[in-house]
Amino acid sequence: MIKYDLTCKCGETFESWFASSSEFDSLCRKKLIKCIYCESSSVKKSVMAPNLPSKSNKIFEKSKLEKNIKKQLLDFRKYIEKNCRNVGENFSREARSIHYDKKTSKGIYGKTTPEEASELIEEGIEVVSIPWVDKSEN
Ligand SMILES: [Zn+2]
After folding, report:
1. How far is the CA of 49 from the centre of ligand 1 (A)?
2. Rounded to the nearest 5 degrees, what angle is found at the Cα of 134, between the Cα atoms of 131 and 137?
3. Would you say the pTM of this structure is higher than 0.70?
4. CB-CB contact of 37 with 54 (8 Å)
């Protein structure tokens, strides 16, 4: 017997037991495997990942979630590039000058080390660090 996590096009995931993987394949071909939630036969085997609880739809959700996060980060990056000034390596210096001189209200972005960032935060300067998503990736 072999247990598969099955994912339906409706987004639900459930478990089912089969005599073998070839039994699964033939049932699947004959559309005899039905979603227990919506009875659709558009059911696929979930990707098996070791070390993850198999009885939930976590695997499916995780990849969906990662895509969403990535998209949000990408949108965020675009927003920052459009609305803020890139100061590159001078980030902590520029951040201080904005904070202390109140020269400009325009936001800045750039590179800083975690140490510099925590120094800035200690000085009461608002710093947000975000993962800089590479645009070329999908
Ligand atoms: Zn379904």
Report:
1. 22
2. 130
3. no
4. no
Pairing of strands 43-45, 2-8: antiparallel
Closest listed residue to residue 46, CA positions, set 68, 32, 62: 62
* d(CA 66, ligand 1 centre) in Å: 22
| Ligand 1 midpoint to CA 33 (Å) | 11
In tens, the pLDDT along 77-121 reads 888 888 888 888 888 888 888 888 876 667 888 888 888 888 988
Tell me the CA–centroid distance for residue 108 and ligand 1, in Å: 47
Cβ proximity of 32 and 6 under 8 Å? no
Cα(36) to ligand 1 centroid in Å equals 7
Write out pLDDT tens, residues 9-63: 999 999 998 888 889 999 999 999 999 999 999 999 886 555 555 555 565 666 7
